[in-house]
Amino acid sequence: MPTHDLNVTAVRALNEALHRLPPDTNETFWQIENPQGKHAIGVGIDAPVDVEINGHVGYYCGGMNKQARLRIHGNAGTGVAENMMSGLVHVMGDASQSAGATGCGGLLIIDGDAAARCGISMKGIDIVVKGSVGHLSAFMGQAGNLVVLGDAGEALGDSIYEARLFIRGKVESLGADCIEKPLEDPHKAELARVLAAAGLNGAIDPGSFRCYGSARKLYHFHIDNVGSY
Amino acid sequence: MCGIVGLFLKNKSLEPALGDMLSHMLVTMTARGPDSAGVAIYGAADDDRVKLTLRKADGTSVDDLQNELVAAAGSAVDISIRSTHIVLSVARPRAALLMRWLSAQKGRLQLVSVGETMEIYKEVGLPEQVVRKFGLSGMSGTHGIGHTRMATESAVTTNGAHPFSTGEDQCLVHNGSLSNHNAVRRSLQHEGMAFSTDNDSEVAAGYLTWRMSQGASLRDSLSSSLSDLDGFFTFVVGTRKGFAVLRDPIACKPAVMAESDDYVAFGSEYRALSVLPNIEKARVFEPEPATVYAWERP
What we know:
A: 2 helices; 11 strands; B: alpha+beta; 33% strand
């Protein structure tokens, strides 16, 4: 069970050790102490390992993650799990802006709030925020599910393509080309799957959410939409 | 970029360590602003006396200046010298005389700040060099604000370094850039305000000074800046008894705060807060956009 104290080990050395792991590694449980807001912790892992990070992390923690399951026992700075491909990043505290940005797959769970631009340009990632999200969340979202148990800030889903947004609380305002859609059975089934993956199986009724998505009017330039760009 | 740190102490027993804590916070923000650094420290007040912080120009001898300052201010002046900065403590009537004398010394001596408790130190260089040069870690006080600068809007000069002070015991640091600062500067000049640089952040400081001179509170001044100042900003502002934070409505620039029974702390990144005592027990949160956060000492 490798333990790394980031007061002693440099982040680069830690990440290099994680990158060297073979697919059949027996070193499957990693403990990281004293992250102290350092940036780029656990970026680019491609191995089925568990990583426990005990404290607050800085920018881009768990970025580009494949397969690994990272649990952050604290808050996360800008761009946590950005461009995640698969696996899990679980933030036990709050996340700063651009959480899960451009994520292609995997699951990002945030127990607290996420700040502005959560899920910006998401491309297939599932994001579950147990608190609220800030303004411009899911901006230009292309695929995946953003599930918010609390509220959403201004301009939710601005210029959205095909991501699905499930919000249980209040939405401050919708961005350009984002509309509310009826919550139909296939949506509820998908939402139940994501909630279950986030450990909320049965705890929350999928029917208590409202569903938002693209009106598909900004896909191609049309002169009548010029005011919306 | 640019890095901001701020610390407002609630627990009196931490006051002797204010400078030391701010030094550590500033140095962690070196990567965000390696070209210059500055700090405003709110220390002890001396009855009826005012502190003028001056910066001497390169090549000017401190010994010569000291003699001239005593001649200009009279023997009742206390002079303390920290590297390129000279702090004069004088009785209030004397301060006005001294300021008139100083205005004739441009090129040799620059007035950095005026205040009953506030002193400002700023210089070009890496934050670690700047804090060492001024002996920041040995300073005590109730609250302080620091800045590490990566210049974007104007030159890398000491005058362009933060904090900016445009009123007694008032200072502001800024991460971002304002887009309407020239227009705001002109309208404030019509109101009689003077500016010593072409820097956008000095305009923000001047705007708040102007609002407060009209009787607005620090909180209300910052609230109205949301409609009068255009651009990207995270501001941290100090007054004699107050400490406040404001981010623009888009939250363009990073900010994280911590509050406990001992202190309120601000950092551009959590790394700056990680050096504080018992930070693990503080409530750490990201300030909301377009929301004024203000604390005032009784």
